[in-house]
Amino acid sequence: MSRTSRYIVFILLGLMGSSRLADAAPKEGATFYSLNSTEAVIQEYENPDRASWQKPGKVIDQLMIKPGSVIADIGSGSGYFSVLLAKQTGNHGTVYAVDNDSEMIAYLEERVKKEGHGNIKPILAKGDNSRLPRAGVDLIFVCNTYMFIENRESFLTRLKDYLKDSGRLAIISYNKTETPEGPPVHTRVSREKTIQEAQKSGFILEAEYFFLPYQHFLLFVKR
Fold first, then answer.
1. pLDDT, the chain, mean
2. Cα 186 from Cα 176, distance rounded (Å)
3. Which tens digits make up the pLDDT trace of 93-123?
4. Which residue in 37, 44, 45, 92 sits closest to 66, CA to CA?
5. Gap between the Cα atoms of 143 and 176, Å rounded
6. For 24-51, how does the pLDDT look when each residue is reduced to its tens digit (9 = 90+)?
7. Distance in Å from the first CA to the final CA of the chain
8. For the residues of the chain, what is the DSSP string, one character each?
């Protein structure tokens, strides 16, 4: 199965850690496969080859997370980034790992117990409700999820309510061009559109990083 076909399967099954997936509907002629969907997605998220292009260590470094920070990982999936974020914020901090797929949350809850990540709190999102503490989050981290969110401007406006006054929003998403990794191009949201939507929702672009080969990495603050 090709990587693009696998992503089509994941989109159809709603396992990419988003709210609703109307924007990600595949075009006619998409191939369907029978597979253990949750296991397949976890294998994709945790593929060791991902580090070569996702560059997770460098991403974490740019976020400059302080010990004791409260972080929300929106669309946390298997916890690929949640675990790294939790190491940075330390025992006195908290990482809310938010996903709307109950099987993925169940997997992450088991992972947290096995690996001893006591500062990771998996949250099963209910519809548009991320169930985060109001005005209590230092950093909201959205990686490989933004393109699958319906009504993104409304979603971002709600996220802003969860951030502290000094809080930040990080969005990492695939560039709207053909790349060796990532979902079909028609599902992606361009860098320019992402910035425009964030600005309409009350955010200001604070920084942008260019070291990711297939993705844009944008950091926003509240206006």
1. 85
2. 8
3. 999 999 999 999 999 999 999 999 999 999 9
4. 92
5. 15
6. 333 333 332 333 578 888 998 999 999 9
7. 45
8. --HHHHHHHHHHHT-SS-S--GGGPPPTT-----S-HHHHHHHHHT-TTHHHHH-HHHHHHHH-PPTT-EEEEET-TTTHHHHHHHHHH-TTSEEEEEES-HHHHHHHHHHHHHHT-TTEEEEE-BTTB--PPTT-EEEEEEES-GGG-SSHHHHHHHHHHHEEEEEEEEEEEE-SS--SSSS-GGG---HHHHHHHHHHTTEEEEEEE---SSEEEEEEEE-
Cβ-defined contacts of 81-85 (< 8 Å, 24+): 81/56, 81/141, 81/143, 82/108, 82/117, 82/120, 83/115, 83/117, 83/120, 84/56, 84/57, 84/60, 85/60, 85/141
For 76, the domain range is 3-222
Identify whether the C-beta of residue 96 lies closer than 8 Å to the C-beta of residue 112.
Answer: no
Other beta carbons within 10 Å of 138: 19
Q: Which residues contact 1 (CB under 8 A, 6 or more apart)?
A: 33
77: left (phi over 0), alpha (psi -120 to 50) or beta: left
CB–CB of 124/100 below 8 Å? yes
Number of domains in the chain: 1
Please state the pTM of the whole predicted model. 0.84
Q: Which residue has the tokens 């998220």?
A: 45
CATH of the domain at 149: 3.40.50.150
